[in-house]
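Action item from last meeting closed. Structure (107 res):
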């Protein structure tokens, strides 16, 4: 099974964020293993309880948020929704280079 890491950088209110999450859902529907990595303003989706990310997390989507970007916006890993994991740059580099077949983004 092909694995995809989708990088998102747009704030949850930006249309690109919705497009990125739709893309993740589409790939999952095709039977691909998809995880999302939230960068820059996209980390705000990882703390929004009523946002578009929550239903995808409930369906089993893997999700990571860059800890440094969370901190810059006044959040910590404790603020993340269940199912969103904080990660650092080293983990992101390892994921991009070794853990996934393809890396797509950034929207």
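Sequence:
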């Amino acid at each position: 099974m092909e694995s995809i890491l989708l990088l998102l950088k747009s704030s949850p209110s930006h249309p690109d964020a919705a497009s990125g999450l739709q893309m993740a859902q589409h790939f999952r529907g095709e039977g691909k293993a998809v995880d999302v990595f939230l960068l820059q303003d996209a980390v705000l989706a990882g703390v929004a309880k009523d946002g578009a990310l929550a239903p995808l997390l409930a369906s089993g989507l893997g999700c990571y948020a860059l800890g440094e970007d969370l901190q810059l916006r006044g959040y910590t890993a404790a603020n993340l929704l269940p199912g969103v994991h904080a990660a650092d740059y080293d983990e992101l580099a390892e994921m991009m280079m070794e853990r996934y077949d393809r890396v797509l983004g950034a929207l």
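Note appended to the action item: The chain has a mean pLDDT of 93.
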